[in-house]
Design a protein that fits this description.
- With 389 residues, the protein is an alpha/beta fold.
- It has helices at residues 2-18, 21-43, 73-84, 104-114, 133-143, 163-168, 190-211, 227-232, 248-254, 278-288, 297-322, 327-351, 361-379; strands at residues 63-69, 91-98, 118-123, 148-151, 156-158, 177-179, 182-184, 223-226, 260-262, 270-272.
- The chain has a domain at 52-275: Spore Coat Polysaccharide Biosynthesis Protein SpsA, Chain A (Alpha-Beta Complex), CATH 3.90.550.10.
- Strand 1 (63-69), helix 3 and strand 2 form a beta-alpha-beta unit.
Length: 389
């Protein structure tokens, strides 16, 4: 046993001493990036696998569900009844009909005759004044009668009648924010799997960092916070001019390790139909990525280190293969990361009710940082109007 250990160590030492300077640099980069990646998987992404919420409120607080809609008539017809018939005793649904030019107003009027807990606020179009979703959302929040706000997009729907109940249970005395999961519907095709993996992996990140005491974002497809928290922190002041960020920038500003909880029970999930092609998805991602540069410095640091280490891991791995460095060592290192990644992602998929993309993880893991980098760069060269739809 001692001889084997000595021989293995001696082999590695000889391998390193015989390598030229460039090979040593690449090896160091490969080793460090592998280490950083394993740290993220073990100490951030794996946290939801073992998460169990012990402290939950037994009080059924009144809830205001706030939805902003612009030209969403078909989604309102399909999804609003699922929200308006939740198994919860005391809640209202506020729809902000934001400058819709379709039949949204008529549809909402019909729904109001059937559901007394539906309230509608309408913003009329002013061609001299363009506004983003944040104005519509602020108006909806001001109209809310209740302290607990639950946000969902018009193109989303809860998967269970206990969605409101499950989300609001987390509001104990110190809780101000609850981060939920908003996934996409599983359909055939590579693009669908790519979008769903991207959404799932982002959730692993923001849930993991929240459980690590470093919350940095949530998603407007499924997010709850207190009305007093919104106004005590001056709402979207400071980033109202930015098209996106009604969810992540607000959470990045006000969240801390003491006032945030997560909710991942399957009855708390929401779903929506993803974009059907890469062009539409890229446009959506490009808009969302405009907010990341406004994150707190520590949030940008932790996210940046993860992305950089991932890119460097694959680049150094490819380079070592090209120069024909000892393939046994680099393949073992690659397989160690792949095994850890696959186990954590598979178990995470089970917790978040996802499926059908596990065998494409490595491809997506390589493609997404490249896509995101290109989209972030392109954001610096494209001027956009402040319109959210």
């Amino acid at each position: 046993m001692h001889l084997y250990n000595y021989t293995s160590v001696d082999y590695l030492i000889n391998l390193l001493t015989s390598a030229n300077n460039l090979e040593k640099i690449i090896l160091v980069i490969f080793g460090l990036s592998l280490l950083i990646q394993l740290i993220y998987y073990f100490f951030v992404y794996s946290r939801i696998l073992f998460y169990k919420q012990n402290e939950k409120s037994t009080v059924e607080n009144p809830v205001s569900v706030v939805i902003c809609a612009r030209n969403e008539v078909e989604n309102l017809k399909k999804h609003l009844p699922l929200i308006l018939t939740q198994d919860y005793p005391n809640y209202e649904v506020i729809v902000v009909n934001d400058c819709s030019s379709d039949k949204s107003e008529e549809t909402l009027a019909v729904l109001q005759t059937k559901y007394p807990n539906l309230r509608v606020t309408t913003i009329k179009e002013d061609k001299k004044f363009y506004h983003g979703k944040k104005l519509a959302l602020t108006i909806g929040i001001k109209a809310a009668k209740n302290e607990i706000l639950l946000l969902i997009d018009a193109d989303c729907y809860p998967v269970d009648k206990n969605w409101i109940r499950q989300m609001q249970k987390n509001f104990t005395d110190k809780t101000e924010i609850v981060l939920g999961y908003g996934g996409y519907v599983n359909r055939k095709g590579f693009v669908n799997k790519l979008i769903r993996f991207d959404t799932f992996f982002i959730a692993l990140q923001y849930f993991g960092f929240a459980l690590a005491g470093k919350p940095y974002m949530g998603v407007g497809r499924n997010l709850a916070y207190r009305k007093s928290t919104f106004f005590n922190n001056k709402g979207f002041a400071g980033h109202s001019h930015i098209l996106s960020g009604d969810d992540d920038l607000f959470i990045n500003k006000v969240a801390n390790k003491k006032n945030v909880k997560i909710e991942i029970d399957k009855s708390s999930h929401t779903r929506s139909i993803p974009k059907s092609n890469l062009k539409e998805w890229f446009a959506q991602k490009q808009r969302h990525l405009t907010t990341s540069k406004y994150y707190k410095t520590k949030s940008k640091f932790f996210l940046g280190i993860e992305i950089l280490s991932r890119i460097l891991f694959y680049l150094s791995f490819i380079f070592l293969l090209i120069i024909k460095f000892d393939y046994r060592i680099i393949l073992i290192a690659f397989l160690i990361r792949l095994f850890v990644q696959s186990v954590i992602i598979k178990k995470g998929m089970n917790r978040l009710q996802e499926k059908s993309f596990l065998f494409l993880v490595t491809i997506f893991d390589i493609l997404l940082p490249i896509f995101n980098f290109c989209l972030i760069i392109s954001n610096y060269f494209i001027i956009r109007q402040n319109k959210w739809k």
